[in-house]
């Protein structure tokens, strides 16, 4: 898709840049990429390296990649809940996430978000999610203000409202990533803030970036979203992860979903009804081996002990029931994958890790690309 | 005030930079601004954008703004207490703060403090103050080392002295911003450190950047400091904020101060005597409406429950007595403002927020500019 | 050692850069230093400043310093324990640390590690060590993801293994600096990670960067490591610091070590046997004055109360026994030094601080240079 442009030749011919040291080109390319991102033209470059005077030099080959839709702002002002995404938006986010994979792999030190400041406002700690967002921001050249004790910030003792806190923090930053213990907090924050808000989980409510990275991982691993067969395994009653995933999969065609879970933590009726209303085929099963042999994705989840209160016996029974081990792997198709939102205990045995179909660490990494994409889209658009 | 200089034309003519891409100019301008700050010449630039070969290009118009006093170091080595500031220093800080407003609004990614490292050494958490300082540093291209558990650093158990801690931390950074629970700690740190120290609050002692941002806000909102009328409302006995503000206002002419507070938290005599000795007119009143109708500034503060111990009844009585609501707004002058150091509870009702005279969130934002100004002044001077 | 190269002249002559503003050269020099580090050629530069058109300009004098071994990768993939270092590796690290001293002193804002991301994964807080590593990374232009509550990350409640945590974090960063409460944790992390791991202390196990900075400090202060006489004073039974130091000193020739400690915390036999097997002379003494008068280094350590449990009486007896005060200083040789890993209580009296032989704060600062060197070596090699 990339083609050379008149501009690049202008550059090479008129300035004789082929005699410059490689770092100079690197600098220029960074400048171009900054330029291209803020003003919607995508430029990439290729270095042809040769030796001169004992120093590695290179010529710059500038390529202009037409942007999806030049100058278009991202459709969303905030990322609050899975319900915001339609098929088109998902496609757009995933396209940018693919670009982010290239940036993360090839160039140390992208400067796309240079000068932007993200506030990580966490009312409860979630180190994994926080590090993922902060890495995303820094991989794009942005900076971070961080707090994991935001409860203290708007201290219950002092009694400041969330709205007042947001009005203060928006003065210090360009985007707010918020984790909260109350459902709906992210929506209230977004309603107040004049800058974008990303929900990094609000209590029992939503965790939309997890939902996005799950769908993105399926797309990347299987190569398609229409026509896929997905097994959701484990705690389907309490996991917002699997509920959001089922919700988003309903936006694609000919999807079939299998629910495999202990009786005490079965998928609730609201999602089942929703799937049916959208024409998505689903069935419940208690035969993990049989389901695994048919599916493109086996999405395993952790049975959470805290959901069982005093009934440790029920917990122990439930957690041991559906384990993904090498036996399950053996019946799975060659190109199928095992996914898991992490952290895992023993619901996937460690010997599975070595199999290329174990996609859960790649899935975690995809969270980085999704968050890079969202930060870029919300801060500077396409 | 800005005028074109020979230097800029040299640049444009001899290098034909009008044919370069916009990012190149951006880069140059950043370099210039770095140059100009460290070597006291202020340069700004203007982009004249035009299309060329399908890429937005621009010409650079470099402008040289004469600095206030070329090469002069800032008068202070540290910022420890309100008593350090005279009228001239306040004026200088405010002038730089104004420049900081421009930088923060116009240019993502100022590089003025690039390569400088600030250590945020907080012996007690104060997320709001910490984020404000860290934002200030990062908005100027500087970097931050942060700790909110500095108590542990010089752990009481291990028994390291504050002086030893400072001697270690100064080896890692270029400036220390310290919050401490003991009055006088900042002064001890400054006496030890070979690098600048900013007091971000030391227990019941001082919080000089809050005092500065309050005076700056009055200057920005009202347009003057001489001849203003200010009502200090709420807890005047315990709030170091209002005490410092009264102290600093005494440096200006024809200031009149009204104290409006419940009996149990009246302004103490030391400040009253000080004001009288400086020729500042003041009076106490229990009629908020009448005072509000005459003042340029109604500075409301929170009644702090923790000051009342067991006497919740006294607290409840005190806190309900002087509320700034739309009734008060209605009698206030058109160009008067309501200020508050935040966080607020219900001593200002939320319906006041929508009125343009509600200045408290702008006031919080001014804290950013004041801190940017102090960081610049202490690290690189004018 | 630095010599001008054809390349530098090419640059100066063909581009007439002597007419550019100083900032432009600064930028170029930064580019070169990036270039030279990633592609193993070391370039430095010298600015000859002159006035032109009222603006300070300069000419660039580029110097090529031959790298120790061009293009050679650092011998180590991770830094886990003192046993990894032989005399050659120590020499190499110290040589780079010396370069780091120059970088830290002369140039604000080295960009050698620009675009690299370090994850500070601390399972227990150690603010001093954390700030030192984070300062090191930022002084070289790198970025940091930080967590001091990593226990929560791989929460015991949730039960994630260290290996799974590492696999996630390595997806977000380029190097992991880990502090852990369990001996051997760093080795496990390194075995899992595809990126370098530095052990910042693992429980009662190792703290290799402390050992390195101790040896480096002796080399810097005394000017040699062969033939030195070192007194290890204080708690020799529990301090991993002194144990590692003794271990590393055995790699040098004609070293003599004196152990001066209360009976309850004497150096253990394993180290004594090791020293003997390596031909290192050692003796125990209870006469601090006599030992101090003969040694190049008096390495004092803190008697840790927590080692004595209920026996406060034994602790009080032990801690008061060997104090380094001005009396000790008076018998010490002119070029000898006092060292201490910090924090100190009263085992070195504060009046010693003013003497130039008090090396402990310089020692803490050397920790910065050693960590800068290790980060550079592990991330980009020579």
Automatic annotation (TrEMBL), chains A, B, C:
Pathway(s) it belongs to: Pyrimidine metabolism; UMP biosynthesis via de novo pathway; (S)-dihydroorotate from bicarbonate: step 2/3
For this protein, the record's PROSITE patterns field holds: CARBAMOYLTRANSFERASE
Q: Which SUPFAM superfamilies match?
A: Aspartate/ornithine carbamoyltransferase
Please report the stretch or stretches of sequence annotated as the Aspartate/ornithine carbamoyltransferase Asp/Orn-binding domain. Answer: 226-377
Q: What is the uppermost EC class here?
A: transferase
Question: What is the reaction catalyzed?
Answer: carbamoyl phosphate + L-aspartate = N-carbamoyl-L-aspartate + phosphate + H(+)
Which Gene3D superfamilies did the record assign? Answer: Aspartate/ornithine carbamoyltransferase (3.40.50.1370)
Q: Which domain of life is it from?
A: Eukaryota
List keywords of the entry alphabetically.
Answer: Allosteric enzyme, Pyrimidine biosynthesis, Transferase
Q: Where would I find the Aspartate/ornithine carbamoyltransferase carbamoyl-P binding domain in this sequence?
A: 78-219
Q: Name one GO biological process term.
A: amino acid metabolic process
Question: E.C. number, please?
Answer: 2.1.3.2
Which GO molecular function annotation, any one, does this entry have?
Answer: aspartate carbamoyltransferase activity
Q: Which PANTHER family does UniProt cross-reference here?
A: ASPARTATE CARBAMOYLTRANSFERASE, ORNITHINE CARBAMOYLTRANSFERASE, MITOCHONDRIAL
Task: Please describe what this protein does.
Answer: Catalyzes the condensation of carbamoyl phosphate and aspartate to form carbamoyl aspartate and inorganic phosphate, the committed step in the de novo pyrimidine nucleotide biosynthesis pathway.
Stated family: Belongs to the aspartate/ornithine carbamoyltransferase superfamily. ATCase family.
> What NCBIfam families does the record tag this protein with?
asp_carb_tr, PRK00856.1
Its recorded name reads aspartate carbamoyltransferase
What is the organism field in this record? Erythroxylum novogranatense
């Amino acid at each position: 898709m990339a083609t050379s442009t008149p501009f690049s030749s202008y550059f090479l011919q008129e300035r004789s840049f082929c005699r410059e040291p490689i770092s100079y080109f690197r600098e220029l390319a960074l400048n171009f990429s900054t330029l291209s991102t803020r003003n919607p033209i995508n430029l990439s470059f290729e270095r042809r390296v040769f030796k001169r005077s004992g120093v590695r030099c290179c010529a710059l080959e500038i390529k202009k990649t037409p942007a999806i839709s030049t100058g278009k702002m991202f459709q969303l002002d905030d990322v609050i809940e899975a319900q915001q995404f339609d098929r088109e938006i998902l496609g757009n986010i995933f396209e940018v996430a693919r670009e982010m994979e290239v940036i993360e792999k090839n160039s140390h030190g992208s400067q796309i978000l240079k000068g932007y400041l993200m506030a990580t406002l966490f009312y409860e700690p979630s180190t994994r999610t926080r590090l993922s967002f902060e890495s995303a921001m820094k991989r794009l050249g942005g900076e971070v203000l961080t707090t994991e004790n935001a409860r203290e910030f708007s201290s219950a003792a002092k009694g400041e409202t969330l709205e007042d806190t947001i009005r203060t923090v928006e003065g210090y930053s360009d985007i707010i990533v918020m984790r909260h213990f109350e459902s709906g907090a992210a929506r209230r924050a977004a309603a107040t803030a004049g800058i974008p808000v990303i929900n990094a989980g609000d209590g029992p409510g939503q965790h939309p970036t997890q939902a996005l990275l799950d769908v993105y991982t399926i797309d990347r691993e299987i190569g398609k979203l229409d026509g896929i067969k997905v097994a959701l395994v484990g705690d389907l009653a309490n996991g917002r992860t699997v509920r959001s995933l089922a919700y988003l999969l309903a936006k694609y065609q000919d999807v079939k979903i299998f629910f495999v879970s202990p009786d005490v933590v079965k998928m609730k009726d609201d999602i089942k009804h929703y799937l049916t209303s959208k024409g998505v085929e689903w069935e419940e099963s208690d035969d993990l081996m049989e389901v695994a042999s048919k599916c493109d994705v086996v999405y395993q989840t952790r049975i959470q002990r805290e959901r069982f209160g005093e009934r440790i016996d029920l917990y122990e029974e439930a957690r041991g029931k559906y384990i993904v081990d090498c036996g399950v792997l053996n019946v799975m198709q060659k190109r199928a994958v095992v996914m898991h939102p992490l952290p895992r205990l023993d619901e996937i045995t460690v010997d599975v890790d070595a199999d290329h179909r174990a996609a859960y660490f790649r899935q975690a990494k995809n969270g980085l690309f999704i968050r890079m994409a969202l930060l870029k889209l919300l801060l500077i658009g396409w």
